[in-house]
Queue: 2 jobs
Job 1
Amino acid sequence: METPCNGRVRRGGWPGGWPVDQIMPLFTITNTVLIAIMQVGVIVAGVLAAGASQKWWMTNEAPTPYLTTLLLRHGVLALTIPLAWSVLAVSLRRRPDISDGLKTLTFLAGILILIALAVIIVYAIARPWFDVDWSLGRSPDP
């Protein structure tokens, strides 16, 4: 599909003039693998941070926050997200009948998944620290 944009014709352009021809060269197998590895790294770092956080909470005899426990117990299941995305991205990349726009969208979805995983994990680890009663059992001063 050819669409005119700013006086020139671009193959596979999206409505609104997204630069598909500039993003498609980035959609390589190597970059797909790198994004999937970064997604896995964020998940692993999050599970390790949840473990360290739980250790701190238990050492100080405080109840472990629910988000930390959830991430610690079920964080490994999140490893299916990079697996599913990378399988989908590689399989779509190799099919000539799929449009460049959909391929670009798939590649950008991987980057958005990486950002979303990082935000969710940082929230799950950092949020309980803002709800801490730092008096740790002492009565507050009047």
Job 2
Amino acid sequence: MKPITALRELNFDVYLTSGGQVKYSYKGEQEPCKSKIIPILNELKLQKTEAIAYLKKEELYKTLKKAKDELNSECQDWEKVFDYLNSHNQELSLKIDEAQERIDNLWKEGRSLSEIGEAIKEWKEFNLEASRLFKLQK
């Protein structure tokens, strides 16, 4: 999103608060040039709804990436894990699928990042359990 990118290029941190408000803070050493910043902030205010959606999506991707990175550090061969689950523990396989569907539904419903984060945490834990079970059977 143009105003967020422009502010970040000028050394601003732009983020969502836990209450879902767009906030920004300057990270640079020298005082920012107000004649450059004011038009960008005005544009950001006009596009507040889009900015919130953009930052929310960005935060969701960061949360998912972190969970996937943690899972990938735990196991490198998820295809074998899921093959094992499908033949030996369909109940856990179903829990993983349902957790993924819950994440998707919470996102589509526009639910809070904390709710989606909890669903991602649950999804990650089910996957970690699957990885541990697969390793035990070797």
